[in-house]
Specification:
4-stranded mixed β-sheet; alpha/beta; 2,3-Dihydroxybiphenyl 1,2-Dioxygenase, domain 1; about 120 residues
Length: about 120
């Protein structure tokens, strides 16, 4: 039924101005539209809607993530923009915040201005 339809992703924000700068200027997503309800970005063909909400408490788990070819390079680019990976005490991470999963994938997490957890996976 929906297998051939385009996916749209939603992320909540109580800080739309900061979210706009973060997703557009730091992450480099193309801003498609904005109004009093949401910002919409093109995330490599997926529509990402950053929805303005009145109240929000971020969850401790990943809500949005990207598969990347070179996680170290992406993290260093984020670090150059003062975005640093989260550190967790329940598994081992390297100096950049990269955890190697049991299947060998490299994973790291960072947060947007609202505290939403975002991830990178190589």
């Amino acid at each position: 039924m929906l297998a051939n339809q385009k996916l749209k992703a939603f992320v909540p924000t109580v800080k739309p101005n900061e979210a706009k700068l973060f997703y557009k200027d730091i992450l480099g997503l193309k801003l498609l539209s904005e109004d009093n309800f949401a910002l919409e970005f093109d995330a490599n063909g997926t529509l990402l809607r950053i929805t303005t909400v009145r109240e929000f408490k971020p969850h401790p788990f990943t809500i949005l993530g990207w598969n990347v070819n070179n996680i170290v390079s992406v993290i260093k680019q984020l670090n150059d923009k003062n975005i640093f990976c989260e550190r967790y005490d329940f598994f081992e991470q390297d100096s950049l915040g990269i955890w190697i999963s049991p299947n060998g994938s490299k994973v790291a997490w960072f947060k947007d201005p609202d505290g939403n957890v975002l991830s990178l996976t190589e």
